[in-house]
Amino acid sequence: MPVSSKSSNAWLRKALSVIAAGAAVLSLTACGGMKTADQVAGNTDASSANGTCPTDVNNDFTGIVRVGWQAIPNADLVVKDQKLLESCLPKATIKWSQFNSGADVLQAFGAKSLDIALLGSSPSVKAVSGPLNLPVQVVWINDVIGEAESLVTQAQGVSSIKDLKGKTIAVPFGSTSHFSLLSALSEAGLTESDVKLVNLDPDKMPAAWERKEIDAAWVWDPVLSQLKEKGGTTVTSSAETAKTGAPTYDLELADSTFIKDNPAVLDTWTAVENHAVQQVKKADDKAVDSIAVQLNVKPDQVRQQLKGYTYLDAAEQAKAFDDLPGVFSKTAEFLKSQGGLDTVASSYDSALYTDAIQKASK
């Protein structure tokens, strides 16, 4: 089917209408049947057992935790693959559901279908700004995005983003890549009307690329690597837009009511993520294998992908959280100037929940 072009404002209107109506999540996919790294390696003893809990086991919580994840190489995938939450919350039911982008996660939070999930910093800002004003808070920094999100092209004669004027560029609307693309266009003196923007989920990009329906795409791994393998060349990256004042992150947001009702679960969740990110920072073999299985790629590819991000442990995040309100304000101002927000909050301090990180950092 030919790819159709839509404006970012049209996407926002559509997303808002879905949330306002309390519609069911459209892109939610349960992934409970995926094999773990242990199972792939032939460790049959791991087929039904949970991992070893790296922190105090929480036997008090007996409810459900609905976790949203994305195919991004970070500690979330280690926690999921090694069943660390299941081992530390043995009486709880952990429901993992995959999303293609932050736009889908926004709809799920709006429909009250999630308790905690990964979102890029751009959709996170949209979540806590008008008109959405969703009752969610940032509880963790999954990673600082660098060259792992890049703009690649298959068009000839393109050496800078200015050369893409009039070309078709695919990007998941509402994502950090979308924000970085708009920032890069603005920095180059262009607007989104100077190019043809196409709202496309990452998993749909390779086919559109092969059919020559798109000239370029701003996306993350593993799709980024796939497009490079198909002849794509890098034009710029999120590392470059960060240098011009538009840094991006992958963040974990949690429903505010869930946080208030279950602070001990957040303590457990944060301790588990902190354990996993230590593995990721060292590119530990077990962590790499876990991420490789969850992304369905080879371990060597994971090691290469990890170089495109910066990972922070709890102690580093305790300091980094001090900068987030300012980052959110700058991001919100830019998004408002692009028509992506109605209002910018006077302060984003209340959008952060730091209690669990402070405990995990000690």
TrEMBL record:
BP GO terms, sorted: alkanesulfonate transmembrane transport
Annotated localization: Periplasm
Keywords: Signal
Chief subcellular location: periplasm
Annotated Gene Ontology cellular component terms: periplasmic space
Claim: Signal is one of the keywords in the record: yes
Family, as annotated: Belongs to the bacterial solute-binding protein SsuA/TauA family.
Protein name per its UniProtKB record: Glycine/betaine ABC transporter substrate-binding protein
Species for this entry: Bifidobacterium tissieri
